[in-house]
Amino acid sequence: MIPLAAVGLTHSADHLSAGTLILLALFGFAGGVGTTALGPGGVLVTIGLFLFSGLPPAAISGTAIATNVGSATLGTGAFARSGQLRGRDTRRMAAVLIAAAVVGTPLGVLVNAHVSGAAFGILLGVCVAGIGALLYLRERQRRAALESDTRPRPPEHHIPPAAAVLPLGLVVALVSGLFGLGGQLLSVPLLITIGAPMLPALGAAQAQSIVIAGVGTIGYALRGAIAWPLVLVIGVPLLAGALVGWRIAHAVPAERLRSVLAAALIAVGAYLIVHNA
């Protein structure tokens, strides 16, 4: 059992059962796999805490974002080792996202203080489903263009300019700070939408997520809104899952990854909207 009073959080129950802790740990593992394999995995931690912990929105976001510190660091190292962060343009994209995170994440933490529990779930669902739909439509357009043009095409290598990446990074950081996300959930599909290849987008998003998680953790800790014991319960399986997800990202074709990413975002978003409406 984990007494929530020990971390300074008021709660309708005094503790969480062993079954609930195991369930949250499983959400953490699944979130780690999805984070490095697809991008949206971190949202599973927020969903698990939202559904099963009974914590208020600030504590859900604070606890969730704190679990991302280790997995973001591990994921960035893994993608750097495999070469996704070696290119000059990719490193530039990551640097722009990091700068945006320094500004946008604290704003998201401040906005969280004014969001109710029901609004928290609905807004998160709308955001996730919208990005999933956008990615799905773009993938359909890409496939239609390939089918209508049989001319040879060069390999996909384009990295978007900083002028396009910066506003995207600011929005990602603000929303991630608000909902306790690591950032990959939003940045990966948006980077793909503006033309970034899948693996460089994953690598740059991982780098940004270190800053989002670090700055967000500090912000929520100052508000006393992090259940630190739950960070350990979820964070350790999250790290294990991140290693598994990194392997999957390099074993599955990029087209399939994009399709799975879109379907996962739409399904998660729809569930959150229905559950909180």
Summarize the structure in words:
- By secondary structure, the protein is mainly α.
- It has one domain.
- The protein has 10 helices and 2 strands.
- Strands 1-2 form a two-stranded antiparallel sheet.
- The radius of gyration is 18 Å and the shape is globular.
- The protein starts with a strand and ends with a helix.
Features:
single chain, 277 residues, mainly alpha, two-stranded antiparallel ribbon, globular, disordered N terminus
What is the alpha-carbon Rg in Å?
A: 18 Å
What is the strand tally?
A: 2
Helix content: over 70%
Q: What distance lies between the first and last C-alpha atoms, to the nearest angstrom?
A: 31 Å
Shape: globular
Specify the biggest β-sheet.
2 strands, antiparallel
Structural class by secondary-structure content = mainly alpha
Strand content: under 5%
Report the order of strands and helices: EEHHHHHHHHHH
Number of helices: 10
Overall mean pLDDT stands at: 81
Major beta sheet, strand line-up: 1-2
Count of all domains: 1
Low-confidence stretches: 1-8, 10-14, 151-156
